[in-house]
Amino acid sequence: MILRKLYHRARADKLVSASMKPTIALGLVAISVVGAEAFQTASRRPDVRFLPTPENVVEAMLTLADVTPADVVFDLGSGDGRIPIAAARTFGARGIGIEIDEQLVRIAKQNAEKAGVADRVTFIQGDLFQADISSATVVAVFLLPGLNIQLIPKFKRELRRGARIVSHHFAMGDVWMPDDERDVSGLMIYRWNLR
Fold first, then answer.
1. Cα torsion angle, 195, 53, 188, 154, sign
2. What does the DSSP 8-state code read for residue 173?
3. Which of 9, 125, 166, 172 has CB atoms 3.0–4.6 Å from 176's, for a disulfide?
């Protein structure tokens, strides 16, 4: 709310140029992404160990999700940031990574700077179960099946109709069957559509 007021005041004073609008919009989205609970991660340990998704699988996941420049791509458990960075660099989308590990968040921010997309991606240290994902149009995960299943109620509660979920390697068991799946060099990826 504070940033929005500052934006409108600066806009009225002609201090915000048209080229700054996407950066400010991304900032507003990022602030709305995570509630106060997501920042209470000091005592929580990661549910899974970080294992990077191969670059060809990242691109295939984003392609399977039909990512466009109009999308906001969330990566739950974003690790080194490769999925939000690829969403911004290759597809022109905005990317938001939620990662509980503070060191990985630092690495992801450095990687975004190196890739030249730091103005289009945001990385937040937080608990993926507590993060507000309601502004996502695409959600990417590489989590164990049990965690994917635990996220189903959150996906159905917070995501809007038309949102897409893509997962590397693990589906959601028999609880929620994917709408599409692909084999990428022996690694499976899955897509679900919110209806």
1. negative
2. T
3. 172
Q: How large is the C-alpha radius of gyration of the chain? A: 16
Q: Is the pTM of this model over 0.70?
A: yes
DSSP of 85-152: HHHHHHH--EEEEEES-HHHHHHHHHHHHHHT-TTTEEEEES-TTTB--TT-SEEEE---HHHHHHHH
φ/ψ of 51, rounded to 5, equals -135, 115
pLDDT tens digits, one per residue of 157-186: 999 999 999 999 999 989 999 999 999 999
Alpha-carbon span 169 to 57, nearest angstrom: 10
- Return the residue matching tokens 């979920």: 165
